[in-house]
Automatic annotation (TrEMBL):
Residue ranges constituting the Dihydroorotate dehydrogenase catalytic domain according to the UniProt record: 84-289
Gene Ontology CC annotations of this record: cytoplasm
Pathway(s) annotated for this protein in UniProt: Pyrimidine metabolism; UMP biosynthesis via de novo pathway
Keywords: Flavoprotein, FMN, Oxidoreductase, Pyrimidine biosynthesis
Designated name of the protein: Dihydroorotate dehydrogenase (Fumarate)
Gene Ontology BP terms: 'de novo' pyrimidine nucleobase biosynthetic process; 'de novo' UMP biosynthetic process
GO molecular function, one term: dihydroorotate dehydrogenase activity
InterPro entries: Aldolase_TIM (IPR013785), DHO_dehydrogenase (IPR050074), Dihydroorotate_DH_1_2 (IPR012135), Dihydroorotate_DH_cat (IPR005720)
Keyword Plastid: no
Domain of life assignment: Bacteria
Cofactor(s), by name: FMN
């Protein structure tokens, strides 16, 4: 029988299928269903500092404490503590309810809150912490290095104040992603998630208003993460990689493992098909391993990454043009 166990962020997972941070993981009941379906781990829905501030502003606009500065400060602090306490309770209750790793997630924009949230989350018993970081750089006068330094500083600051492993969930918008991941590992991050799926705007030409583009990923979206998982895993040996975006079936999980991922984060597939899709993914991985005589994940993990390919240039952009030249 094939052994599907893998190690991600130093945590032993019974299989590499991880449910990513989303509304799927915002309650103990849902987390139990995901665990029962076979998930190897879950990443809790992110604790957003921005959302907490939004809740505070709603309270203030509603007239609660608006007339008295001291009362307003109390409302702000109470709302923050209430939101954080609810999140910490989710961590504790989830840990008590399931026997798989529970990874917390936070998204902040102020330096103090990264540290405060991280310490409280560790004390609540989270097995690891995923830092959900994204900055839209719109300043034409800024240097790329300044933009990247934000990520390095966050990783270093949080890693210094907690003992649980820290991962960074990244977007693809870097001039040198390999360098960024290498610097993050030096800054204390034990892993990275490639890639985050961000809010993307769209324009309604009938109402002339800004709307949201498609929320869920499609199977074809795996192409970008597959390339970079293969490249980064071959260059940075000391950092675990969780592949994310476009993973909708067991085939996609196997592809990411072959590219060098330690785990595969799923979300859209579960929203569309229910927790049962996790069961089918795990069953496929096991049957595929048996078919190819692999007894463990380590037997084939990274087997087709950039370093292990006879022609690694196949992962590079130049090959895109060569591949399609036959259609000219």
């Amino acid at each position: 029988m094939a052994n599907l166990e893998t190690t991600y962020l130093g945590l032993k997972l019974k299989n590499p299928v991880v449910v990513s941070s989303s509304g799927l993981t915002n309650s103990v009941e849902q987390i139990q269903k995901l665990a029962a379906a076979g998930a190897g781990a879950v990443v809790l829905k992110s604790l957003f500092e921005e959302q907490i501030i939004h809740e505070v502003n709603n309270e203030v606009r509603g007239g609660h404490g608006f007339d008295y500065p001291e009362a307003m400060d109390y409302v702000r602090e109470y709302t923050r503590e209430n939101s954080v306490s609810a999140y910490l309770k989710l961590i504790k209750d989830a840990k008590a309810a399931v026997d798989i790793p529970v990874i917390a997630s936070i998204n902040c924009f102020s330096a103090d809150e990264w540290v405060n949230f991280a310490q409280e989350i560790e004390n609540a018993g989270a097995d690891a912490l995923e830092l959900n970081v994204f900055r839209v750089n719109t300043d034409k006068n800024s240097e790329p290095g300044t933009y990247e330094d934000i990520y390095f500083k966050i990783a270093e600051t949080v890693s210094e104040v907690v003992s649980i492993p820290v991962s960074m969930k990244l977007g693809p918008y870097f001039s040198d992603l390999v360098h960024v991941v290498d610097r993050l590992s030096v800054s204390g991050a034990k892993g990275v998630v490639l890639f985050n799926r961000f809010y993307e705007p769209d324009i309604d030409i009938h109402t002339l208003s800004l709307t949201s583009a498609e929320v869920f990923s499609n199977p074809s979206d795996i192409r970008q993460s597959l390339r970079w998982v293969a490249i980064v895993s071959s260059k940075i040996n000391k950092t675990d990689i969780a592949a994310s975006t476009g993973i909708h079936d067991g085939t996609a999980v196997v592809k990411q493992l072959l590219a060098g991922a330690s785990a595969a984060q799923v979300c859209s597939a579960v929203y569309k098909n229910g927790p049962e899709v996790i069961t089918r993914m795990v069953e496929f991985i096991e049957s595929w391993m048996q078919e190819h005589n692999f007894s463990s994940i380590k037997d084939f993990q990274g087997k087709m990454n950039y370093r292990n390919m006879k022609n690694p240039a196949l992962y590079e952009r130049a090959q895109f043009m060569k591949y399609f030249s036959k259609f000219e």
